[in-house]
Design brief:
- This protein has seven helices and 13 strands.
- Helix content is about 25%, strand content about 40%.
- The protein is an alpha+beta fold.
Length: about 350
């Protein structure tokens, strides 16, 4: 009798483990979504389960809609679900890489990035920046303005900026290394600095492969990465203070960097960077900075280059006892040969859509 009881316990435990390690059923996944609605902190557990266990059900628009609603439209959760469905349909093509492949793709990315930066063409491009603000954590973005900037890049001068218009009204401004004299939040470095910093030897970046994904129909490996404060040369966050007619004073502090990088699984090109600033001093006005940059192939003078097409930047700052967020959603349009005039078109002043292009 004791042997039979012991055997029953073993069988029950085996079934329980299988239920916890096999692919997620639709019922199980939906139950987890409702738990996320009540406890947002459990979202990471759902993402982990999707990546480790996968799903056994066909992904429908109804499940996608429920994921957006219960998961607060979280981008990482949505991507993990889509990847789990791709892996369900084709386990071989979307399997996790071996340690060898992960290391090879990363090394290929180091070399490809350095070659691309060395061969960076001289160009001009138009930045269309939709700026908005919200109470921190609400996601209730209220539009502030629409800024159009002409950006030029050359190996001799680096990145140069000139403000062309704000809310459709032309602006007379000088070309400079940044556009920090413009009222409101500003950014820079999307073309070279943010990408180069990933693979600089002095950054001592720590990488670890996280999952697989697809961006613009390109299979990619996703790596977690971190650059410690003491190694993040040139990285940091800052804020501006108005000095009336004298312009603005700028205060900045160094910071570390922690995020994810999407690398084309075949040719080792960086397709996306997403990071948050770390080690910001507790008494600094800016409490957080989050950024993402999407890269795509663009044509300049008959040749194709992988350059930024979208950047989403969010600053969290403290005002008294409240936290506020400023957001700069930047689209890069009309890459052209260096020296070409940048012109404002009617479509440039239209509202900027919030979604990411060509997922």
């Amino acid at each position: 009798m004791k042997k039979l009881l012991f055997l029953a316990i073993i069988l029950f435990a085996s079934q329980f483990i299988t239920a916890q390690t096999g692919p997620l059923s639709q019922a199980e996944y939906v139950k987890m979504l409702y738990a996320v609605e009540k406890s947002p902190a459990s979202k990471d557990d759902v993402i982990s389960a999707l990546r480790k266990r996968g799903i056994s059900f066909v992904l429908t628009d109804g499940i996608r809609s429920l994921t957006r609603t219960k998961g607060r439209n979280d981008d990482e959760l949505k991507r993990a679900l889509e990847e789990a469905d791709r892996r369900r349909q084709d386990p071989v093509a979307y399997e996790m890489p071996s340690a060898k492949e992960a290391a090879e793709v990363l090394e290929k990315a180091r070399k490809a990035t350095q070659l691309a930066l060395d061969a960076m063409p001289d160009f001009v491009v138009k930045q269309i920046i939709a700026r908005s603000a919200a109470y921190a954590g609400t996601g209730n973005w209220q539009p502030l303005d629409n800024v159009i900037i002409a950006v030029s890049y050359s190996t001799e001068k680096g990145e140069q900026y000139r403000v062309l218009a704000v809310d459709g009204a032309p602006v007379q401004s000088q070309t400079g290394n940044n556009y920090a004299d413009l009222e409101g939040s500003t950014t820079g470095g999307e073309f070279v600095e943010d990408l180069a910093r990933l693979f600089k030897p002095e950054s001592k970046t720590e990488f670890s492969v996280l999952t697989t994904d697809v961006i613009r129909n390109q299979p990619a490996l996703v790596y977690d990465y971190e650059i410690l404060l003491e190694n993040n040369k040139g990285g940091g966050v800052g804020f501006k203070t108005s000095n009336g007619q004298k312009g603005y004073s700028f205060t900045s502090v160094p910071a570390g960097e922690k995020g994810k990088v999407w690398i084309d699984r075949k040719n080792g090109r960086v397709l996306r960077i997403q990071f948050t600033a770390t080690s910001i001093p507790a008494d600094f006005k800016v409490r957080a900075f989050d950024s993402s940059i999407d890269y795509d192939w663009v044509e300049i003078a008959g040749d194709k280059y992988l350059l930024p097409v979208l950047s989403d930047n969010r600053f969290t700052s403290r005002e008294g006892n409240k936290l506020f967020q400023d957001r700069n959603l930047i689209r890069f349009k009309n890459y052209q040969r260096y020296g070409t005039d940048v012109r404002i078109l009617d479509e440039d002043t239209a509202p900027v859509p919030d979604e990411k292009p060509n997922q």
